[in-house]
Design goal:
The protein has 245 residues and is mainly alpha-helical. It has ten helices and no strands. The protein starts with a helix and ends with a helix. The relative contact order is 0.08.
Length: 245
């Protein structure tokens, strides 16, 4: 069952990434967990393993299309980018295990989640698996109602989008993601979009120097900020682990 679901979730992930530039691997994994909460009640290993399959495969497919666009802008061939992804998947697995295991799993899986490194995503997956393997009747009624209302609104928004030929202003995918990603991420995305929108209004002509620097290069600027923040986070973590302790 996990393999056929991968194809469905991959289509959802790619569509979501194309519309919002966010890959909802976590929520897609939770949907798989929900399915196996019904198909294999009480089996927490099956629940986690199958959710991991669907989330990882759909996530990598969506990440590939994210990388193809800047690669295309830089003159790269999609075929070579796909080969690079395959090389990265193998080498990344080897190096990540070599680093992750001695840092976080040297005391065994039971010591993975600590106060210093709480791994919130891991805790969420664990909690969802524990609840669903006990049966859907363990879910609070408010959660069931929220899922039903959210699913219904998503269907209505999509129908309106089709009827109005993409003129309906609300995005079902965007609103859905806003409920599952942190508020500070939503706020940062809003302010980033607002800043570039204002810059585009202020310098609206493509031949203007400020338009060339900021408006036409907004993807590169945003990517640089995100990559820089990630590298600083890794550097701080390494400093805490190997120097300050």
């Amino acid at each position: 069952m996990a393999i056929p679901l991968v194809f469905v979730f991959t289509l959802i992930a790619v569509n979501s990434t194309a519309l919002t530039s966010i890959m909802p691997s976590g929520p897609l994994g939770k949907i798989t967990q929900l399915v196996y909460g019904v198909l294999a009640p009480g089996n927490i290993t099956t629940n986690i393993a199958t959710a991991g399959i669907s989330a990882e495969v759909s996530g990598n497919a969506a990440n590939l299309i994210q990388n193809i666009k800047p690669g295309y802008m830089l003159g790269g061939k999609p075929r070579l980018q796909a080969i690079g992804h395959l090389i990265g998947a193998v080498s990344g697995a080897l190096f990540s295990v070599a680093v992750f295991y001695p840092l976080f799993l040297h005391h065994g899986p039971a010591g993975l989640v600590t106060e210093d490194y709480p791994f919130p995503a891991v805790v969420v997956w664990k909690a969802v698996a524990e609840i669903l393997t006990r049966g859907l009747d363990q879910l609070p009624p408010s959660a069931l109602w929220a899922a039903a209302i959210g699913g219904g609104m998503g269907i209505v928004f999509e129908i309106l989008r089709q009827v109005t030929k993409n003129k309906f202003p609300l995005s079902a995918v965007g609103i859905g993601l806003a409920f599952v990603i942190p508020f500070n991420t939503c706020l940062a995305m809003f302010f980033g979009a607002l800043v570039f929108w204002l810059l585009g209004k202020r310098w609206s002509k493509p031949e203007q120097r400020m338009n060339e620097i900021f408006v036409q290069n907004q993807e590169s600027i945003c990517a640089g900020i995100i990559a820089g923040a990630a590298l600083i986070g890794i550097a701080v973590m390494a400093l805490e682990l190997f120097v300050l302790k």
